[in-house]
Amino acid sequence: MSTVETYTTPDGRTIGAPVMEMKNITLRFGGVVAIKDISFDIREGEIRAIIGPNGAGKSSMLNVMNGFYHPQEGEVWFRGKIRPPMRPYQIAGQGVARTFQNIALFKGMSTLDNIMCGRLTHMKTGMLSHILWKGKAEREEVEAREKVEKIIDFLEIQAIRKKPVGSLPYGLQKRVELGRALAADPELLLLDEPMAGMNVEEKEDMSRFILDVNDEFGTTIALIEHDMGVVMDIADRVVVMDYGKKIGDGTPAEVLANQDVIDAYLGVDHG
Amino acid sequence: MSAEFYFGVEVFLNGLMAGVMYSLVALGFVLIFKASGIFNYAQGVMALFAALTLVGFQNGQIPFAHLINTIFGTELSTFGWTLPAFAAILLTLGVMILFAVLVEKLVLKHLVNQEPIILFMATIGLAYFMEGFGDLMWGSDIKKLDIGIPQGGNRWIEDHTAFLGGDNFYGFYIDTLDIYAAVIAAILVSSLVLFSKYTKTGRALRAVADDHQAALSVGISLRTIWVIVWAIAGFVALVAGIMWGSKSGVQFSLSLIALKALPVLMLGGFTSIPGAIVGGLIIGVGEKMFEFLIGAPFLGGATENWFAYMLALMFLVFRPQGLFGEKIIERV
Q: What ipTM is given for this predicted complex?
């Protein structure tokens, strides 16, 4: 067991015990080492950023967290227990929700239906009761719908509730995808470049949503981001990766002062 | 109006009815293709197998009787009872669900992430396996399927349309069985559409059809969904098997109705449930009317065998995704 310690952020939030711990994770694709012996933890209530240059293995790390990839070495601990190898949908059932770098929405479905899908892990009634559409199934559907409407209000996307998401502009699609992940009431929310390809205004909106999610729902968030400015603004602690290795870990200020990090970002010869 | 005109109308109506029968088969294809991108060649054989099993249960046939007799030298053939149609249908449905589970466990599970063509080949194998298995289980003789749906020209329609024409017109001839088929198809399609639109499982089905990775990330188990989809397709195959079996007897050529579903799919699109229906109707009406207006008078008849494919070919040239299909051309 890791030592349980809490810390308080500069803005006065108390960060609790680790929700997820990555211990000596190594991930290989054939001969290519995508992640090499990386350890870090994500604590309850914090916003944890993973940054690094292109090809550093950040997305691979997220894929390990939500079970798309299974590391060859190392352990993933969730809520203080070692996590056995599980399928992604089982991990989603445990309360780990995510978004994707290249937006993986259900393009033919409406915004509402997409976000309703995010609620699936909380809907337990069987298929037969749905066919008959009675009692419990109906109540569950209504409850899910209420929750989803709250999220739609929260993300300010009421106007596009019924629109098929494939037709929406990029920034809004990103927002719908965040909504779908939120609908699961996740214990841990993984965001893969939530602001990639956005303009300044959209980035500000998205930053505000991420901070609000963390603040209002107390959701623990791990996010990958390229924009250093954004990361420094919203993250409590930052992991820096380069060429599959961890080269820095700490508060934004600590990381910024780290010589390895500066080298990685300014492009020192890696010989 | 001339008798010729009324005959034309009758041909049209019968075309619609034939179209419904095609749609029933095409529907099963669409369900599986939508959810998993697999063109399930075995759909026709599934209909045959369902019909065989239904008749077998109804007549109290002993499964694998011939095999057992050969090995043990016995002379078994039936249990000596007959089941009511309703019970036999439920039992057959159970068999089709079991079949869906087995297909997932024995075939699909091992082919995750394979090319569509590999999966297609697997369904071809499945089709031939099932044909042989059905033969082994229930025997290969032609069987009569009767679950109590009346057959033959509908008197009521004949009586109430006879006044339209002259002395030589006796009213429209429409098979009662076809009317039942149309009503059942309508109920089937609307319940499928409602199910997929308004229930959790339906939403999950659509999600899987749309994006596998995203579906996994929101906690949907692909394998469960595939079992459900194949079970529903098995159910649709059962309905198609009942209708076709009642019409033309349960025989092994029944599996060839799958080939008639192909042009329907090209017309309606591989991914659209309403498309399967409309495509079926167009093919049904088209081939009957073509035969009536052009085929029989000018081409020496028997155009029904190829007209549907010609029509489908023209659609492939001008609208490859079909009438209602999504624009995913490379996949088809």
A: 0.85
